[in-house]
Amino acid sequence: MLSTRLVSTYMLIVVVLLLTLLALDIEASCPSPVFCTGTALDAIQKLKLYDDDKEFVDRVLTKGTDEFIRLFSEIKVQDYSNKDLMQKFVKSNTQNSGSDLIQIEPTDFNPNPKIFTKIPQELIPFVTDLHSRWKNLLRAQKPDLMYSSSSLLPVPNPFIVPGGRFREWYNWDSFWILSGLQVSEMNETALHIIQNFLWCINEYGFVPNGGRIYYLNRSQPPLTAVMIWNYYQKFYQNADEGSQKVGLEFLRTSLPTLLKEYSYWMSSKHMVLYMDRNGNHHKVNRYNVDNTQPRPESYMKDYDLAQKSFQTENERKNFYAQVAAGAESGIDYSTRWFDDYKKLTTIKTNQILPIDLNSLMYRMEYTISLIARELRQNDVYTQFNKASNDRKSAIYNIFWNSKYSTWFDVDMTTRTQRIATPAGDQLKMVASIYPVWAGASHLSKLEDNALVTKFVRENLRIGGISTTNIQSDQQWDDANVWAPLQYFISQALENSYHAQPTPENQPELFKVVNTWISTTYCGWKSEKDMFEKYDANRLGKSGGGGEYLPQGGFGWTNGLVLTYLDKYSQFIQLSKC
What we know:
By secondary structure, the chain is α+β, with helices and mostly antiparallel strands. It contains 19 helices and 15 strands. The longest helix has 25 residues, at 241-265. The two termini are 36 Å apart.
């Protein structure tokens, strides 16, 4: 493995790449005729050369895009269906997926971080493995990589990948990865991830879904501002005078970039004016992607389903836009986005106003106001203080349901809240807890805490709390348990309690925490791996469903385990595996 100090040797390459990308004007689009669109992509993916569509678009072109296209043009159209010929062509002109990356040794790795002194002895081998996994998941772009030979985005710093088929960085995954890195005292690596995100916003106007060129038409749940504020609070806000100055400069240089990202989310693509029940209009957000073709990384899944299910090309193009918007949500996929819970083809993501996204937008607005206040930029503070208050009003007037005492998504086509499951029961989803986490609730803290406590009592199972109470073959439904959602629930309980929580005064909080630690620990004991998602009904077992096989690794899972163990170490009680 190479040292991160060697990363500087390819910074000149990055500069050249930046200039090239600017020349291509690729903001919110994907220019590659191999990795994003075009005859070659279409012909190769339709042959299903690989079990996973993502494999081809993650391969490296031996001689770059232009030469690949030139050689492809020499193939006769009638030979596009010749699998043997095309397989030989791809093999001769590409290198394995992942060969555009190098695994590097972190310079800030501490083999004995303080967390080892805090946790139960039984968990030392478990945490040692999790802590060491950062070394296995740290990547940088290969120094001699030729531009246009790879779909990799040329960020300037090393990054942590989730693991498995996800061999590049991902947007909202990084929130929990950052948290875990800070527990591991890998502060430089954490800062590099933030700097990469700021770089992306300055280059593209937003943080893409992930670190590949084919993700440039969409983002993911926006958490950049919160990442920056959390990092500032942990390392700078209460430090010595010199560190405080460094921290303020960190905020000062970050703020214009955050405003740029906010503009992306408040453009007409993502923001709509929606009238509440009293006739008042509010600015609210949705997930929405300009896309008229199959996703390159899921090409045949999209293409086959569209061909089988729709009669017209316009219907197919709409389907492609909706599944891309579902991917932008990070909740890909859930029946939350469907008209018929049994049919992915009824997906209509951009017609849904999601309560979780609007809570995240509130938190972004509120956090920007905090940063502006810290910097004494009063005009920006006033603007975003008002924006966050307006958002809180929208969340109450549009998403709140007084009958059920919770928040729901809103269907813009029917102008109704999406309240019921297919069985006619009340829909219960972790997304309804986001307003309490974000501070966007109109309720008192006591009422907030009671609301989340009731939710946990009704939905916590042996392996955790599943995304929704709808049983489907989608991976963001019952019975899959995901790290981000356990975090939002536990943090909502803590945020809404008036004092330091303990198992005596906040038992549900510690049940959520201990269930997550137990299911991940038991899975690790039996499989020696960490999963992307877990099964709510089976302790320590991987979740299922979705477009791909269960993945190990795993960035956000590891990050949340380390965060919980660091924060609640004295209260850990493991279930019997």
